[in-house]
Amino acid sequence: MQAQEKVDAALELLRCARERRLRVKEAIGIISMVTRLSERVLAEGVRRGVIRREGGEIVLLGEPARARCRRRRCDAVCRRCGRRITLCHYLEAGGFELGPYGSECIRRINTS
Ligand SMILES: [Zn+2]
Question: How large is the average pLDDT for residues 61-85?
């Protein structure tokens, strides 16, 4: 995935956050599911009107979204934290297929 695509995918995931108000650290926790370019994602999110920065918080604007989640038994490594996982979660958000992730790493995401 190109850097710009990662930024786009991270913003799609942010739109699926369970909370509409996140501490910056929590927002970065979600962004890190896709990329380490958190400042770029946050700046782009503000520019596109996806988020607003308010003090130490990130406020999600617009309608909450859901990521479609598929689970399957596996023997893999979580794309976010690098931990060994045996239940893989693959997320689909805004046309992006992301994963695999362990269950811990997707808990801030609204899934269906
Ligand atoms: Zn993980």
Answer: 97
CATH value of 3-60 in 2.30.30, 2.60.40, 3.40.50, 1.10.10:
1.10.10
What spacing in Å lies between the alpha carbon of 22 and ligand 1's midpoint? 19
Predicted confidence at residue 74, as pLDDT, reads: 98
pLDDT of residue 103: 96
Separation of CA 82 and ligand 1 centre (Å): 6
Instruction: Give the model's pLDDT for residue 75.
Output: 98
Q: What pLDDT, on a 0 to 100 scale, did the predictor assign at position 54?
A: 96
List b or e across 59-73, with b for residues whose CB sees 16 or more CB atoms inside 10 angstroms. Answer: ebeeeebebebeeee
- Distance, CA of 91 to CA of 74 (rounded, Å): 15
Domain edges within the chain: 3-60, 68-106
CA–centroid distance, 49 to ligand 1, in Å, is 28
Is residue 88 a contact partner of residue 105, using CB atoms and an 8 Å limit?
A: no
